[in-house]
């Protein structure tokens, strides 16, 4: 969130600067839908334990969704005035960077493979929908303005305090459901069975 969130805002500002109001609105709506899907799946897990145990899925990876939505769009817009070959190469580079960043969440145990893949798929769908929409628009400003907006964010944001978005989602889930938050991380082997047993116990307690 410390980088991709501000970059998403920078894209909207750049589009507004280019007086492409509809395109800016389209980006905000598409990115907002992607973020909403992330929040809904996480709230469903934290609040009610709704997930897919066999897939180790407990909610879309917000990190993967944002990366796959933002970086392809940023690269595409930076080369919007370039030749089609350069523009397509830039888009491919943005996709590759986003995928690498998304899968970097696996070694640190932040997400399972299914959470990263599905979160990234939603992000790529957002980026693809935006690119298709952008083909009919011609922003009035060149890509250098987007670079000028993005470079300070990339340099400064890694040193800023991390936004506790996950904690906020967990608190919302608890408030809505009235239940204790379901543990976020899936584990391998027999621990999956413990998670299912815990869910069954909670269901019995609620029934009583």
Automatic annotation (TrEMBL):
SUPFAM superfamilies: Acid phosphatase/Vanadium-dependent haloperoxidase (SSF48317). Keywords: Membrane, Transmembrane, Transmembrane helix. It comes from the Bacteria. Residues 57-132 form the Phosphatidic acid phosphatase type 2/haloperoxidase domain. The chain crosses the membrane at residues 27-48, 60-79, 91-110, 116-134, 141-160. This is Phosphatase PAP2 family protein.
